[in-house]
Amino acid sequence: MRIKWPGNSCIVCLKEVPLFREHLIPKALGGILTCSFLCKECNSALGTRVDAGVKKDPRIRFAVDSLQSDIPNLARKFMEGQPYIFQVGDWTERGKFRKGELRATTRQTKEGALIQPSDEGYKSNERILRKNGINEDTIQEGLRRLHEAKENEIVALAPGRIAVKRRVEQVEPDLRGSKLLTSLLPLKIGYEFLALHLGSAIYRQDSTLGRLRVALRQGLEDHPSFHVESLNASEYRPFHGIDFVGNNPHAVVLIRLFGWLAFRVHFHGLAINHPSISYLHRLDTNQEDIQTTNRSADTPRQSGQPDC
Q1: Is 215 in contact with 202 (CB distance < 8 Å)?
Q2: Domain ranges of the chain
Q3: Which residue, 245, 216, 247, 219, is CA-closest to 231?
Q4: CA-to-CA distance for 45 and 62, rounded, in angstroms?
Q5: Mind giving me the DSSP string for 34-66?
Q6: So what's the pLDDT on residue 88?
Q7: What is the torsion angle, in degrees rounded to the nearest 10, for the CA atoms of residue 205, residue 208, residue 214 and residue 216?
Q8: Which positions of the chain have pLDDT values less than 50?
Q9: How far is CA 68 from CA 86, 182, 232, 236, 238, in A?
Q10: In angstroms, rounded to a whole number, what is the distance separating the alpha carbons of residues 249 and 302?
Q11: What's the longest Cα–Cα distance across the chain?
């Protein structure tokens, strides 16, 4: 869903420049709710500083792995280039998914064995056998036997040269270098979602909105203008959701990713006098649903809060 934006200035830096489409929920997570309300510089900065980290969060990796049967296309795209650990015979190997296939990282063991993906292994063996002076008929016969061999069957390619097609027995994410999402992702999603409620009022030059814009521009994970609660539901489910839950006593936005990982974003000093909007994106069917309620109308506000 693409939301038409009423303004002509960036909602983060307030510069009146050409605006670019922004995914409120990162595209890497399958997000399709977009709005053109960021300038190129802010769009790029938030993409690099915030959105790029989503694939490194182990909670999201496990969520995607758990939902592969429900969201196969998204899972394949998400897994592309991701590191994995897998058991091959007596060895624990590392590799990455490339073009939908798990490919081992090429390495040589202490015993001299060469570990490679199958297609590279055929080429390497052919090259080594030729280098060792093995005649072409023997090379082709050995490669044919290797091609027809069962998993874990030892094949003699030529005198002094053997090969084995190992079966991958267990696969799990390689979490080296993993990093939990910072508070900047839910802040970005929550701020942009509130902008859809407020329209041009998001440009107001009051201190509360100004502090939020500073936190986003400077990448401040800990800032008095907001705080983020991390929550978990009971199970993984194939949907994302964003919900302005009202002013309690300040504006609060609830974000759910893959039905399980949730963030409650508290915007201190800010109250929204606007009907509440709930957004739901069903990842298995790619359907979106927006519902509006008047929840905010009877919610109390603290004195001194800007009433947008």
Answers
A1: no
A2: 2-57+179-298, 83-172
A3: 245
A4: 27
A5: EEEEEEHHHHHHHHHHTGGGGGG-HHHHHHHHH
A6: 80
A7: -120
A8: 296-308
A9: 18, 25, 19, 11, 10
A10: 7
A11: 89
